[in-house]
Amino acid sequence: MCLNTKNEVVAVHRCHIGSLNSSIVHPREVFKAAILNNSASIIVAHQHPSGDVTPSREDVEMTKRLAEAGRILGIEVLDHLVINYKAEYTSLKERGFFS
């Protein structure tokens, strides 16, 4: 989700579709939509088809990479959510995986 300076959603984009158990996404794919929409910040989300919303090691590493890229670009990553088909979720920000 791309947000403006008032944290209002200005656009929602699907950046990548992974396979059943993995996904390789690059920060440039995530931030492309944010840059084109003049976003002040973004919220990233992805689904775990297994139903387990526990963030993987790769989820945490990608979140840290996105947060660092956002700092460089001046587009803050407000949160990264892991969701499932039952509308349960885990916030990596709330869990303290990045600041």
From TrEMBL:
<dbReference type="GO" id="GO:0046872">
    <property type="term" value="F:metal ion binding"/>
</dbReference>
<keyword id="KW-0645">Protease</keyword>
<dbReference type="InterPro" id="IPR037518">
    <property type="entry name" value="MPN"/>
</dbReference>
<dbReference type="GO" id="GO:0008237">
    <property type="term" value="F:metallopeptidase activity"/>
</dbReference>
<keyword id="KW-0482">Metalloprotease</keyword>
<feature type="domain" description="MPN">
    <location>
        <begin position="1"/>
        <end position="98"/>
    </location>
</feature>
<comment type="similarity">
    <text>Belongs to the UPF0758 family.</text>
</comment>
<dbReference type="Pfam" id="PF04002">
    <property type="entry name" value="RadC"/>
</dbReference>
<dbReference type="GO" id="GO:0006508">
    <property type="term" value="P:proteolysis"/>
</dbReference>
<dbReference type="InterPro" id="IPR001405">
    <property type="entry name" value="UPF0758"/>
</dbReference>
<keyword id="KW-0862">Zinc</keyword>
<keyword id="KW-0614">Plasmid</keyword>
<keyword id="KW-0378">Hydrolase</keyword>
<dbReference type="InterPro" id="IPR025657">
    <property type="entry name" value="RadC_JAB"/>
</dbReference>
<protein>
    <submittedName>
        <fullName>DNA repair protein RadC</fullName>
    </submittedName>
</protein>
<keyword id="KW-0479">Metal-binding</keyword>
